[in-house]
Design goal:
alpha+beta; 102 residues
Length: 102
Amino acid sequence: VLKLFPELGSELKTYRTALAYVEPPADLKAAWEVAPVILDVGGVTDGYMIPLTRGAGMKFGSGLHKVPTSDADWNRQPVPGEGEVIRNLFSPPLARITEYKV
């Protein structure tokens, strides 16, 4: 955003964020295929879940997993283990969290 609108640099704070694409356990896949988006899982996770939608993978994201940056191109590649760190923020509320494969 700041490359497009540099004058907003004093007003906006930008972050590098990431999300985890996960595959739910096989016995829960059908339930997740008809589940709604969950915008707030509660607790301290500051997390959201986007279920399987039209062939797109299930996504977990958390506001706890962000790093301030003014450069949108900085650190765009996933860090090894990053998906698992994000996924694990969701236990609780989710049980069997390690069965959700990143």
